[in-house]
Amino acid sequence: MPEEKIEVQNNIKLSGFLVVTMAIAAGVTVANLYYIQPLLAEIAASFHVSQVNISLAATLTQVGYALGMLMILPLADIREKKSLILFMLGCSACALLFMAFSRNSVMLCIASFAVGFTSVVPQLILPLAAQLADPKERGKIIGTVISGVLIGILVSRTVSGLIGQYMGWQAVYYIACGLMILLAVFLTLRLPKCPSVTKIKYFSLFRSMVQLTKELPILRESSLNGGMMFAAFSVFWTTLSFLLAGPQYRLGADAAGLFGLVGVAGASAAPIVGRIADRKSPRFPIALGMGAVTLSFFCFLFFGYSLAGLIVGVIFLDLGVQSCQTSNQARIHAISDEARNRINTVYMVTYFVGGALGSFLGSFSYAHWGWTGVCVVGLLTQAAAITVQLNGVRRDAQRNRLQIAGNDRSAE
């Protein structure tokens, strides 16, 4: 589909301070999606409902996030990005306040969906960082911002677990609302304005995303294996609080949250993975990531009833998911400057649909087959991801053979 491009003079220097600012902003905002996970057992008790029923709220948060990305992220290709980011921060603050005021499970589920829908700021910041980055350093910069995202995901569980244990789960969302307001004020002063890069009607954006998905096999591959990796991530983290609250451990929300600190070791690897993706094929760190996640679920399966087994598994899980996410983001952001946000939308919507599926399957499996069922589901997600990866390798090998054959015929 032809698009009218807008020539934009990019005079913004992407300094180290600005990259760190973007990483922190992305991490603080993405945390909104994950505060609920270590609090599920406590919220279920306060509303007198089953743990399986209340886990629907965690699933709806990710469904809302996926839908929010689908509806909002493409706007960044046709609107000024800073004002869009600030507007979404205001909406996120309102949704978090609604969450804190929830008085029953129905209100909680509606609020959870709203929190997810409005918390898309990290996926507005990431393409902005990729757009402003030097192409030679794009993987490294994307890795730094994604480090902020993953650290936000992991530390959010620690913070919410501790606050929920000692101040009540509602306090988590009052504090989060205040953080969104403070972040909006800070970014108003620090974030540069960045105008749109193309002229296209809003509803035409969706038609173009369908076309991009059809035309770009690398986008389809990245989206599918990324979705399966995040499904595995959600399978574990949605059910961890149930395992720890059970008879094997009898631990509270604070213990579930503290496991988030263990995964920070994996998050710190993102810039390193980004540099590898800059220098080598992204498939290499993606393959390593899949291996690490597969190994993590074997740890959970055979050693999940010991703290040491859980800790080792968490390190491998977060390192593997981080490797895959950083490498996938590096290769999709190199496809097109004009369609970057739409490409990111396709990828991230699929990614979080996978996460929502993982949350649902994890809680369902735990209710029916216990921890063993959770681990089996996690391993099945990796089987699907590896299949997608191998299909991509075969497709590229076939294309290379055809290209070589064509060159040989031309030479003759």
Question: What do you see in this structure?
Answer:
The protein is built from 16 helices and two strands. The longest helix is centred in the C-terminal third of the chain and has 72 residues, at 340-411. The two termini are 37 Å apart. Helix 3 (51-72) crosses helix 16 (340-411), helix 4 packs antiparallel against helix 5 and helix 10 (217-245) packs antiparallel against helix 15. Residues 4-9 have low confidence and may be disordered. With 412 residues, the protein is mainly alpha-helical. Strands 1-2 form a two-stranded antiparallel sheet.
Q: Tell me the series of helices and strands, N- to C-terminal.
A: EHHHHHHHHEHHHHHHHH
* Spatial shape: globular
- Main beta sheet: 2 strands, antiparallel
- Which structural category fits the helices and strands? mainly alpha
Number of strands: 2
How many helices?
Answer: 16
For the biggest β-sheet, the strand order reads 1-2
Strand content: under 5%
How far is the first residue's CA from the last residue's CA? 37 Å
**Unreliably modeled segments:** 4-9
Mean pLDDT across all residues, rounded?
A: 85
Question: Helix proportion of residues, in percent?
Answer: over 70%
Radius of gyration: 21 Å
Set down the secondary structure blueprint:
Blueprint: E1 4-5, H1 16-30, H2 40-47, H3 51-72, H4 81-100, H5 105-118, H6 121-132, H7 138-167, H8 169-190, E2 198-199, H9 202-215, H10 217-245, H11 253-262, H12 264-267, H13 270-279, H14 283-303, H15 307-332, H16 340-411
Helix pairs in contact: 1-6, 1-7, 1-8, 2-3, 3-5, 3-16, 4-5, 4-6, 4-8, 6-7, 6-16, 7-8, 7-11, 7-13, 7-15, 9-16, 10-11, 10-15, 10-16, 13-15, 14-15, 14-16
